[in-house]
């Protein structure tokens, strides 16, 4: 019967379904191809996003500004145009460190013009209390920094992003702003040369005066990679090490009155984390600067330490050292002197001591408070 159907032009049901499916598949395939051709044609006509900066010798600030911009979705695939030609710069979508104009509405971020004196403080109405004149890196960070951190720390809370935003400026960006604007870190004459800063390493990537090939653009790419990796590492350290330490210190600080009624002793449940900077900041936020005098924590060997809190910004000076008569004494002699079992030592300067047990370390801190009547 199949031969008869074929002879007279008939098809069975299965053949008609198969033929219809094949035609439908071809139709869909042609639609996909046509769509891709339209997209390719649009892409070929669409102008490339361009980031403009100056040609020639480069510096840390514009290298970092370009890196930060290219972390954002709208500039991810942008080309970097290095030129001082005004006509070429006018065609760029955003311009940094050249052009003599600061105008966020047109995405022009230069800081060299005489009229510019902007700082984080002046441009945020005092919300960011930093008074160093901004470079192109600081300007880009001011206007795009929050969105940059959305890309670099997407799983963090808004509160943590805001903390990192301020800290990253203070401990990374401000130095770059200051150096580019010729602002020294101190008014005193330096006692030695510092040549290994991030700015110095970027500067060293410029072609030497006697290099046969003066490839400034190629070296600039290396500079953006160098300063960019430094930025990413800083953010990573803040997110994965510094912030977790903050939460440990905050928890201990908030429970300090459970450890001692005066609130002058803090106990860390987990030793080894950096605590001093966090403690100072938490005291400031709580309006009790200088209150905490001792911290206790477990060391890596399972014993406990009692450590005096230093005076902020004054090197090795303590708010209150362990008693002088304990200093330099060890083991049984120290236990006999203090009346506290299982003492291990007290350092000769009185900044730290040890006991085999938590309760022993806590008692050493208690006695130190009582003996000085604070």
Overall residue-averaged pLDDT value: 91
**Beta strands, count:** 10
Order of helices and strands: HHEHEHEEEHHHHHHEHEEHEEH
- Summarize the main sheet: 5 strands, mixed
Report helical residue fraction: 40-55%
Strand content: 5-15%
Overall geometry comes to elongated
What's the total helix number? 13
What's the alpha carbon Rg, rounded to whole Å? 32 Å
The N- and C-terminal alpha carbons lie at a distance of 111 Å
Task: Give the assembly state of these chains.
Answer: single chain
Which structural category fits the helices and strands?
alpha/beta
Low-pLDDT residue intervals, each spanning 5 or more residues: 1-10, 41-46
Strand order of the largest sheet: 2-1-3-5-4
Layout of SSEs?
Blueprint: H1 2-7, H2 13-45, E1 50-53, H3 60-69, E2 79-82, H4 86-90, E3 94-96, E4 102-103, E5 108-109, H5 120-123, H6 136-152, H7 158-180, H8 198-203, H9 216-254, H10 256-259, E6 265-267, H11 276-286, E7 294-298, E8 304-308, H12 331-338, E9 343-346, E10 352-355, H13 358-372
Parallel strand pairs: 1-2, 1-3, 3-5, 6-7
Antiparallel strand pairs: 4-5, 7-8, 8-10, 9-10
Helix pairs in contact: 3-6, 3-9, 6-7, 7-9
What report would you give on this structure?
The protein is α/β, with parallel strands linked by helices. Helices cover 48% and strands 10% of the residues. The radius of gyration is 32 Å and the shape is elongated. It starts with a helix and ends with a helix.
Question: What's the short story on this structure?
Answer:
With 374 residues, the protein is an alpha/beta fold. It has helices spanning 2-7, 13-45, 60-69, 86-90, 120-123, 136-152, 158-180, 198-203, 216-254, 256-259, 276-286, 331-338, 358-372, and strands at 50-53, 79-82, 94-96, 102-103, 108-109, 265-267, 294-298, 304-308, 343-346, 352-355.
């Amino acid at each position: 019967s199949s031969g008869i159907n074929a002879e007279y032009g008939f098809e069975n049901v299965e053949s008609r379904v198969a033929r219809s499916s094949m035609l439908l598949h071809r139709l869909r395939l042609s639609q996909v191809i046509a769509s891709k051709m339209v997209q390719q044609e649009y892409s070929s006509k669409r102008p490339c996003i361009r980031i403009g900066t100056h040609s020639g010798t480069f510096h840390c600030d514009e290298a970092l500004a370009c890196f930060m911009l290219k972390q954002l979705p709208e500039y991810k695939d942008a080309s970097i145009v290095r030129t001082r030609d005004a006509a070429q710069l006018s065609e760029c979508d955003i311009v940094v460190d050249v052009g003599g104009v600061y105008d966020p509405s047109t995405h022009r971020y230069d800081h060299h013009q005489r009229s510019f004196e902007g700082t984080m403080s002046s441009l945020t109405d005092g919300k960011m209390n930093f008074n160093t004149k901004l470079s192109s890196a600081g300007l880009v960070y001011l206007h795009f920094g929050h969105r940059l951190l959305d890309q670099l720390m997407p799983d963090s809370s808004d509160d943590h992003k805001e903390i990192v935003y301020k800290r990253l400026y203070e401990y990374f960006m401000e130095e770059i702003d200051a150096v580019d604007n010729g602002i020294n870190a101190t008014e005193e004459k330096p006692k030695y040369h510092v040549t290994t800063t991030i700015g110095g390493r970027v500067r060293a990537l410029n072609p030497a005066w006697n290099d046969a090939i003066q490839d400034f653009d190629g070296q600039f790419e290396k500079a953006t990679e160098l300063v960019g990796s430094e930025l990413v590492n800083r953010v990573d350290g803040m997110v994965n090490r510094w912030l977790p330490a903050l939460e440990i210190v905050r928890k201990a600080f908030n429970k300090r009155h459970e450890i001692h009624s005066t609130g002058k002793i803090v106990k860390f449940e987990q030793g080894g984390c950096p605590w001093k900077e966090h403690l100072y900041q938490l005291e400031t936020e709580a309006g009790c600067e200088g209150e905490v005098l001792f911290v206790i924590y477990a060391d890596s060997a399972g014993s406990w330490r009692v450590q005096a809190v230093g005076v902020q910004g004054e090197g090795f000076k303590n708010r209150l050292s362990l008693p002088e008569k304990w200093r330099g004494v060890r083991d049984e002699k120290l236990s006999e002197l203090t009346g506290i079992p299982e003492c291990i030592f007290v350092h000769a300067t009185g900044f730290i001591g040890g006991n085999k047990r938590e309760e022993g370390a806590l008692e050493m801190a208690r006695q130190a408070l009582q003996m000085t009547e604070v």
